[in-house]
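CO-FOLDING WORKSHEET

Operator: S.A.
Ligand of interest: zinc ion
Run index: 108
Mode: holo prediction, single chain
Checklist:
[x] sequence pasted
[x] SMILES validated
[ ] output reviewed
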Amino acid sequence: MTLRFCLQYMKKKVGRPPKSRRKQPFEVQGKNGAKLTKHGVIIHCKHCKAPHHNSGGCRLKKDGISSEDAKRMVAESQQAQLANQRIDEPLNAISQVLDKLFTFTLFC
Ligand SMILES: [Zn+2]
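OUTPUT RECEIVED:
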């Protein structure tokens, strides 16, 4: 019984055995030469062009918003964020200068 069981699993497999070494990313050939890795690349959604998710996980797509509208909404929100950062930058610089002056007056 056990011998038959062993023989069943010791049958010779068909085909060439796989290599134990995995190829490095630069060794994999694509259409135009060696393939580049996606390491360090932030993915962007194909539907709305927002970073950090793909179209499979796109909330705007799930809500039924068209691709053009979604792209417009994302672009507007990004512009608003940039505008807020620009407003904050001078205020931060002024506050840093005031902090330095305050510490300077304390030590003098
Ligand atoms: Zn998206």
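REVIEW:
The CA atoms of residues 3 and 9 lie 10 Å apart.
The first helix runs from residue 2 to 9.
[x] output reviewed
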